[in-house]
Every structure is written in structure tokens, then in C-alpha cells.
Amino acid sequence: MGKNDIIHLFEAHEVRPTANRIIIAEALADARRPLSLTELEDMLETVDKSVIYRSLSLFKEHRLVHIIEDGSDGVRYELCHSHDYHHDEDQHAHFYCENCHKTFCLEDTPVPEVTLPEGFKKQTVNYVIKGVCPDCRK
């Protein structure tokens, strides 16, 4: 995903594209898997940690990232590729390896539709399968 693609996503999600925000979004896109805050901080040594945290909070507020609670001791972030601020057509399942503690996107596995009882309103969906990844099985 190139810089222009990132800028278009920012526009679709009503996020102003600053240099640091673009760097953070590019790191999330290049990772090809959800990253923890610590992993992002380690990757982006030139970006202040508070800037990374504030950017992720802004991305979350504007639905530019998916927040994955994979059962580890924190959350992971992945760039949302949806081009619609109000409707996320990029929801998919994730796989958490219980051995190496990495979370992987299962982009070809959509999150199943769930009918909620009357009065309930869905905010987010977190669909995680746990097991052992191919690398750890070797």
C-alpha cells in the first residue's frame, strides 16, 4: 500500500494526513498482521511514543484501525482498508498463535453475521481463532 493509498484512506475516514500519521499507517499496512503498541514503538524509533499512542487513538475514533483483542495481555492494531467511514466492509477473522503470540489476519474468512436481540446495538466485532501457526508447528 503506497503513500497515496494511505492518504486516500485518511480522506475517507476524515483524518488529516500528517507526516507522522502517514508513517504509522504505512507501518501498520506493511506489517501485514496486527501489531501491538510496543511492536509499533520498536519499529518506529524516530517517532515519539506519545505521538504513536495519540495517532492510534485518533485512528480508532475515526475507524481507521481495527482493534483486535486476541487474548494476550494487550490489544493489537491493524489498518482498516474500508473506504467508508460509516460502514466497515473489511471485517475478517484473526488467528492467534498460542506459541509465538503473534496474531494473523484471515482476510478470506469473513466475520459471520450475528442477529442480536432487540435493543442491542453492535459497536465492534472481535472474531479470533486460537491455536498454533505453521511456523511454530515445524
Name the overall outline.
globular
Kindly report the CATH topology.
Arc Repressor Mutant, subunit A
Strand content: 15-25%
Determine the number of helices (DSSP H or I, runs of at least 4 residues). Answer: 5
How can the largest sheet be summarized? 3 strands, antiparallel
CATH superfamily: Winged helix-like DNA-binding domain superfamily/Winged helix DNA-binding domain
CATH class: Mainly Alpha
Q: Roughly what percent helix? A: 25-40%
CA radius of gyration: 15 Å
How far apart the termini lie comes to: 31 Å
Topology of this structure?
Blueprint: H1 3-12, H2 19-31, E1 35-36, H3 37-43, H4 49-61, E2 65-68, E3 76-79, E4 92-97, E5 103-110, E6 128-131, H5 134-137
Parallel strand pairs: 4-6
Antiparallel strand pairs: 1-3, 2-3, 4-5
Keywords:
single chain, 138 residues, alpha+beta, Arc Repressor Mutant, subunit A, three-stranded antiparallel β-sheet, three-stranded mixed β-sheet, 5 helices, 6 strands, globular
